[in-house]
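Justification of resources, computational component.

The compute hours requested in this renewal are based largely on the per-chain cost of generating structure records like the one below. Each record pairs the submitted sequence with a full structure-token output. That output is archived, and it is also reused by downstream analysis tasks.
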Amino acid sequence: MKRLLGLTLLGMILLSFLFPSVAISAGTPTEGYGILQVIGNVSKVSIGGKGTLKAPFIIILPAGNYTILSGKKVKIRAEITVKPGKWKVLMLNPPSGKPVIGNATILGTEITYNENIEYPKVESRFSPGFPSVGWGCGGGWAPFYWTDKPYPLSGVDKGGYTGEFLLNGTITACWNRGRREGLFYTLVGPYYQEGIGLKNASFVTPISTLRASSDVDPLKGYLFNVSLISMVTPFVVALPVVPEDVYNVSAVTLQGEQLVIPHIQRVTTYNISVGFDHYLLTATIELAPWASYSLYYNTSTIKNTVRIVEIPFDFEIPVIP
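The structure output for this chain reads:
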């Protein structure tokens, strides 16, 4: 790698002599640009807002944030910042093995490198502290454990390294040591979870469990953009699975009132990730109802996927008369 970086820097120096510049007065629109060079074992690279280019390439870009995409089976996403007067070398190398394996149906794997974000480092596994659930099966307090993209979900720490996500507007069963203790019409939002007790219902949302582990424990886990206290590898999370759209679900409350839910959307796919350093390793999975799954994240396969070198470069953009 050091030899590659040395050759890259040497190439940058030689290349600077190939682009004679024309003096530009201060304040012209050409100020505030940087250079992006992409190399590595990739053939095509997409730059957000700029199109797709054949790698390797060098491009002059306005300073700002850019999303760089590459890869087929395993997608690589690099979130980078091009700075004025800086030459940034981005090296992309797809992993040689499978970064994520397991018995779930893995629809896709994505490696995200964000140079402006460093994911929290977990020094050791500790007993999760204050749980989010506070009122038994029927309700709870869920600070920040909420997402509405792509589904309205709220999370609950259930004790130890086990969490559960609840889907808004569905019928949820409450389980205690393998026994169903009750049914609830579940309503969740950014700062609340509420359950309306039911006598019966024509459809109860199935639950599946997923165990996530990694080659380097402990790592912080994420479901879409949400992480529970309990989601530290290895952890278990229970997820609602609705195999098909369900319409006109009927139920009777404990007070004898009739309840009708016009539509419960299909929910079978989830993004489960682990984060470390500047990397987020994500598996998009498809689940079946009432099943148990496991995923194993091999982070050692992606540590060299993205490399960045940046040096100052005093240049002026050529002006064509």
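The radius of gyration is 25 Å. The longest strand covers residues 179-189.
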